[in-house]
Amino acid sequence: MSLTTSFERVALPLEYPFTIARSTEEVAELVLVTVSDGEFEGIGGAGPSPHYGETAATVEAVLPDLLSVVESVGDPHRLDEVERRMRETIEYNAAARCAVDIALHDLVAKRLDLPLYRYWGLSEGAPVESTYTIGIDTTEVMREKTAEAVERGYGSLKIKLGTDRDREIIETVRSEAPEATIRVDANEAWSPREAIERIDEIGEYGIEFVEQPVPAGDPEGLKYVYERSSLPIAADESCITLSDIPRVADRCDIANIKLMKCGGLREAIRMIHAARAHGLETMLGCMSESNASIAAGCHLAPLLDYADLDGALLLDEDRYSGVPMPGGVIDLSAVDRGTGAGPI
User: Fold this and answer.
1) Which of 73, 94, 137, 321 minimizes the number of CB atoms within 10 Å of its CB?
2) Dihedral of the alpha carbons of 143, 147, 152, 153, in degrees to the nearest 10
């Protein structure tokens, strides 16, 4: 079998500027990967994060080497071999490897005429609702964005915190979304003691859990918060690859796994099972991404407790439609009603 490959860098504006505790983003700089067998075409996407040492430029720089692995193997079904050889070739560029991995899974699913989740042997399961994220802004703008999200039908919201007015923000959001499920994410912004103070302040507003309250470089701080928090704790920046699962198992309640952090779908599945074995709940998160990668993550929904897969929902427009997510609810049954092919 002969495979041909290509990639393309794209810049997709976000609907609104997106601010978290450490940065602001207005455009998602992505790289799209295509793998073709001459009849079917698999699509994957990289949504690199500078926080993890990757940019669209670094992805472009390593993709020729990664795609040469794919072409030399020549068979998209040899996913284990490709994954191993890509890691041996390029160890640290997880988002780049992930884009290739997704494209191969997409191609395999299309060749077999199966939705990706069925290729993995999964059933649709109970619907999983993704959060819709409200980035940091003025309190009034966050009020307006919350009201708009509620009007669009999103019932689960993630609120970015890490300001000197966190309680004011949560009070405002809750007033605009009295029935919504609300999670918060500090993106490493708090010290351990500050985290406990903030969690106590916002606890009365019905918060489901708190994501990454302290810096990833302070594992003892994370444990301090976990042992004293009145709310469940999710580890994101502290949980990157499979080897991190046992390290955070006694420091959080939920492992937030991201394809762009761990390097691909197979590693994400291993992390999900490892997290379960360590007594953790699981969430699949994302960066600012296109459905070229978000769609593949949606097919993991039957394995998850929580989803934060709104990366494509935050874009102003996307060339791919992905898995339908009405009101944020991942609708895998709609994939069966469609072409029956892979994730894109």
Assistant:
1) 321
2) 110
Which residue, 265, 255, 256, is CA-closest to 298?
Answer: 265
* CATH number of the domain within which 276 lies: 3.20.20.120
Q: Three-class SS of residue 68?
A: helix
| Model confidence pLDDT, tens digit, residues 273-308 | 999 999 999 999 999 999 999 999 999 999 999 999
Alpha helix (H) residue ranges in 113-152:
116-119, 139-151
Q: Are 135 and 333 in contact, with CB atoms under 8 Å apart?
A: no
342 is a domain residue: no
Q: What is the mean pLDDT of residues 46-56?
A: 96
CA torsion 60-61-65-70 (nearest 10°) is -10
Q: What is the share, in percent, of the chain residues with pLDDT greater than 70?
A: 97
Q: Is the pLDDT of residue 344 over 80?
A: no
Measured distance CA(98)–CA(262) in Å, rounded: 8
Residue 99 forms part of a structural domain: yes
pLDDT band per the 50, 70, 90 thresholds, residue 336: low
Distances (CA, A) of 198 to 88, 191, 227, 230: 43, 10, 15, 11
Beta strand segments in 128-266, E: 128-129, 132-134, 156-160, 181-185, 207-211, 233-235, 254-258
- Token couple for 239: 């949980």
- pLDDT tens column, 116-125: 999 999 998 8
What sign for the dihedral angle of Cα 85, 89, 258, 106?
A: negative
Residues 256, 135, single domain; the answer is: yes
Model confidence band, residue 1 (pLDDT cutoffs 50, 70, 90) = confident
Instruction: Record the pTM.
Output: 0.95
Range of the domain at 14: 4-112
Local structure of residue 180 (DSSP, 8 states): S
